[in-house]
């Protein structure tokens, strides 16, 4: 887990582990804000809307919400995350999301995927807990309508056994677009909502939500993390128009309000984050490489930071020491800042000599 700056020396042995050193390095790296070169680099990146800079104070957000390591803590307190995704085509995306949750500092990370994807994902890492419960249409092609209902109920029952243990679900990385599978995932989302489990919707989860906005509308514990294409489809569906690059701020506010109370993290040259009330941007210099998988890493990271921000909110009895005060927005700011900085460091390290493996 990332260790808070200025922790007392009782944690020094823990803090000497390689993982902690690496994570502390990331935090320290974020302090480079005042660096002149960095400032110059950032000049072209700042998101200006209506003349006002919206840049979030991400370093202080990170400091505030990252939990301290506590020797009395038990496994699970730093976060239990589940990724719902992984099908015939895609096994990388759910892996990147789930392993990122662990690397950020969550204690447990699960993946719910199809049977074929499960063996592959398990072979990437023994650290992930993989549930091969989802089915695609091809695997039940000989089954009649009643049989399909049975399979669907069985999937839901299997998922429900676990659901209330999770601090956050990530729905969509590498999910695919099979109609039967998406129908089951819709039911999973409805159950998560009834149980007030936060959800991060990404990748094909956004394809599902764009076609069934009701799944998230009016749910303040939902975060959508669209890329350029996914954002365009959402705007077209919800606002009924093309993306307006002249009023990014106003459009994002309208989109959040149009869907109803969700938080949106719009990925791009600058990441823009809004809950329909405020807009914040994270323009930390990232990587010029746009290889696949970086968004998956972000969605797993948002899940962990969102959970920590909610814990922070509880610990401060609803009076957090940081603003903005919406924990889903805080989680998005922290994740965006860390992932962009990590991308920048990875590029500095590897340059273009070899392809940047997102998980490295
Ligand atoms: N290794 C893996 O398993 C990966 C799987 N992925 C999964 O693949 C599925 C589909 O996600 P996609 O992001 O490809 O779907 P999208 O529908 O967002 O993107 C589809 C197409 O849009 C193009 N595109 C991207 N940015 C663009 C831009 N700025 N302007 C114009 N065109 C642009 C891409 O080249 C791609 O051909 C999701 O489930 C996702 O999670 C991706 O996350 C990538 C990695
Ligand atoms: N033009 C850009 N310049 C710098 N960083 C960017 C740019 N576009 C996206 N990013 C960053 O890259 C990360 C992934 O965003 P991206 O738009 O590539 O997601 P994605 O298409 O969903 O990725 P994936 O391939 O994992 O599905 C985010 O952290 C985002 O801030
Ligand atoms: Mg994506």
TrEMBL record:
UniProt source species: Herrania umbratica
Role according to the record: Catalyzes the dehydration of the S-form of NAD(P)HX at the expense of ATP, which is converted to ADP. Together with NAD(P)HX epimerase, which catalyzes the epimerization of the S- and R-forms, the enzyme allows the repair of both epimers of NAD(P)HX, a damaged form of NAD(P)H that is a result of enzymatic or heat-dependent hydration.
GO biological process per UniProt: metabolite repair; nicotinamide nucleotide metabolic process
Enzyme class: lyase
Superkingdom in the source lineage: Eukaryota
List of residues binding (6S)-NADPHX: 174, 227-233, 296
Keywords (A to Z) from UniProt: ATP-binding, Lyase, NAD, NADP, Nucleotide-binding, Phosphoprotein
Residue span(s) of domain YjeF C-terminal: 58-360
Catalysed reaction, written as an equation: (6S)-NADHX + ATP = ADP + phosphate + NADH + H(+); (6S)-NADPHX + ATP = ADP + phosphate + NADPH + H(+)
Organism lineage: Eukaryota, Viridiplantae, Streptophyta, Embryophyta, Tracheophyta
Named cofactor requirement(s): Mg(2+)
EC numbers, comma separated: 4.2.1.93
Name of the molecule in the record: ATP-dependent (S)-NAD(P)H-hydrate dehydratase
GO molecular function: ATP binding; ATP-dependent NAD(P)H-hydrate dehydratase activity
Binding site for ATP: 267-271, 286-295
């Amino acid at each position: 887990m990332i260790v808070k700056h200025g922790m007392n020396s009782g944690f020094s042995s823990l803090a000497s582990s390689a993982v902690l050193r690496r994570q502390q390095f990331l935090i320290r790296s974020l302090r480079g804000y005042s660096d002149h070169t960095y400032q110059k680099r950032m000049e072209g990146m700042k998101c200006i809307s209506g003349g006002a800079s919206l840049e979030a104070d991400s370093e202080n957000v990170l400091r505030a919400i990252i939990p301290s390591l506590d020797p009395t803590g038990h496994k699970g307190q730093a976060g239990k995350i589940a990724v719902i995704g992984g099908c015939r085509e895609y096994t990388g995306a759910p892996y990147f999301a789930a392993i990122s949750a662990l690397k950020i500092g969550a204690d447990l990370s699960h993946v719910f995927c199809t049977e074929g994807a499960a063996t592959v994902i398990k072979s990437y890492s023994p650290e992930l807990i993989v549930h091969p419960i989802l089915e695609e249409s091809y695997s039940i092609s000989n089954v009649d309508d009643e049989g399909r209902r049975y399979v669907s109920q069985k999937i839901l029952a299997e998922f429900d056994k676990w659901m209330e243990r999770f601090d956050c679900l990530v729905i969509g990385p590498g999910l695919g677009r099979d109609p039967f599978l998406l129908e089951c995932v819709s039911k999973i989302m409805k159950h998560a909502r009834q149980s007030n489990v936060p959800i991060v919707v990404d990748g094909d989860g956004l394809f599902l939500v764009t076609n069934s906005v009701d799944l998230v509308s009016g749910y303040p514990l939902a975060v959508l993390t669209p890329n350029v294409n996914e954002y365009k489809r959402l705007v077209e569906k919800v606002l009924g128009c093309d993306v307006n690059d002249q009023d990014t701020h106003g459009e994002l506010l309208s989109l959040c309000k149009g869907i109803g109370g969700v938080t949106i993290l719009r990925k791009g040259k600058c990441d823009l984050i809004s809950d329909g009330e405020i807009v914040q941007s994270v323009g930390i210099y990232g990587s010029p490489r746009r290889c696949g998988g970086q968004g998956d890493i972000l969605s797993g990271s948002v899940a962990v930071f969102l959970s920590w921000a909610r814990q922070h909110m509880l610990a401060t009895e609803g009076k957090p020491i940081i603003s903005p005060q919406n924990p889903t927005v805080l989680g998005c700011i922290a994740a965006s800042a860390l992932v962009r900085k990590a991308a920048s460091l990875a590029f500095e390290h590897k340059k273009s000599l070899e392809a940047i493996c997102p998980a490295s």
